[in-house]
Amino acid sequence: MRRTFVFTSILILCLSTITISVQSHYHSQHDPGEPKSTDLHFFLHEAPSGNNATVAMIARSNITVDVNNSSMPFGTVYAIDDQLRVGLEPDSELIGNAQGLTVIIAGRNTPPSVLLYFDFGFTTGKFNGSSISVISRNPTTDMDRELSVVGGRGKFRMAKGFAHLKVHSANATAIIAELNVTVIHRYGKHNKCYYNKEKIAFLDFSPKFK
Ligand SMILES: *[C@@H]1O[C@H](CO)[C@@H](O)[C@H](O)[C@H]1NC(C)=O
Ligand SMILES: *[C@@H]1O[C@H](CO)[C@@H](O)[C@H](O)[C@H]1NC(C)=O
Ligand SMILES: *[C@@H]1O[C@H](CO)[C@@H](O)[C@H](O)[C@H]1NC(C)=O
Ligand SMILES: *[C@@H]1O[C@H](CO)[C@@H](O)[C@H](O)[C@H]1NC(C)=O
Ligand SMILES: *[C@@H]1O[C@H](CO)[C@@H](O)[C@H](O)[C@H]1NC(C)=O
Ligand SMILES: *[C@@H]1O[C@H](CO)[C@@H](O)[C@H](O)[C@H]1NC(C)=O
Ligand SMILES: *[C@@H]1O[C@H](CO)[C@@H](O)[C@H](O)[C@H]1NC(C)=O
């Protein structure tokens, strides 16, 4: 009971400090630290159809012509929840997922192309809980493609970079692609609110990195 009261008081103190601070200073500066570079190598496993499909059509245009009965006419939007694995094998270690949207952006007179809005999230190891954001054109007729990395979360905060994607195999039930991602990012401690007798410090953007 007493501990709960103390803890609650600290929380209230921290919150009120933040409120006061917001009123008096609406900005602060901090050193984001030295940039880091990380290379990632993994495989994306997609199931376009079947009971466990990782692709679901959300909407499609009713005015685009379905040339050759393509399953992906211009103006179609899909939700994606693909698996990220360490290898080509469907039973290799699962390390995360690629979740997001794809939009078919090529019309009849342009080469097939898709716009990806993906969050590559990792669920194991050093980058568990961190993710990188990809917003990029994905020219689906090229076997080797480059995607742009525009941001990230967790250990990939402020990420910028690129990914090389190569399709290894594709059929109606399985698409397997290899990715090499290079990102420059900065990460530090999480923002903290802590109490000591002298002062209440908050928003600790420590420039020290692990
Ligand atoms: C779908 O996933 C479930 C659970 O992982 C599995 O038992 C089932 O065999 C899978 N079905 C297909 C068609 O792959
Ligand atoms: C497409 O959908 C809109 C809205 O329902 C409708 O007004 C229009 O007639 C449809 N066009 C065609 C070609 O079916
Ligand atoms: C439709 O199929 C024909 C024959 O396979 C091919 O020549 C043509 O390029 C296809 N059109 C589109 C838009 O994919
Ligand atoms: C598209 O599919 C419809 C119905 O399945 C079929 O009648 C038509 O011939 C197909 N068109 C082409 C170009 O394959
Ligand atoms: C990843 O992080 C989540 C949330 O913190 C945790 O529940 C899970 O056990 C972690 N997984 C691994 C493999 O470390
Ligand atoms: C990824 O990097 C490895 C090692 O350099 C290379 O063998 C592989 O071809 C690359 N794959 C892609 C898709 O860039
Ligand atoms: C599709 O490709 C996967 C991976 O290469 C393979 O395991 C599967 O047998 C293929 N399915 C068909 C119907 O060819």
Automatic annotation (TrEMBL):
Predominant localisation class: secreted
Q: Which InterPro entries match?
A: Allene_oxi_cyc_Dirigent (IPR044859), Dirigent (IPR004265)
Keyword Secreted: yes or no?
Answer: yes
Which locations, inside or outside the cell, does it occupy?
A: Secreted, Extracellular space, Apoplast
One GO cellular-component annotation of the UniProt record comes to: apoplast
Give the range the annotation lists for the signal sequence: 1-24
Q: Which family does it belong to?
A: Belongs to the plant dirigent protein family.
Protein name per the record:
Dirigent protein
Q: Which organism is it from?
A: Hibiscus trionum (Flower of an hour)
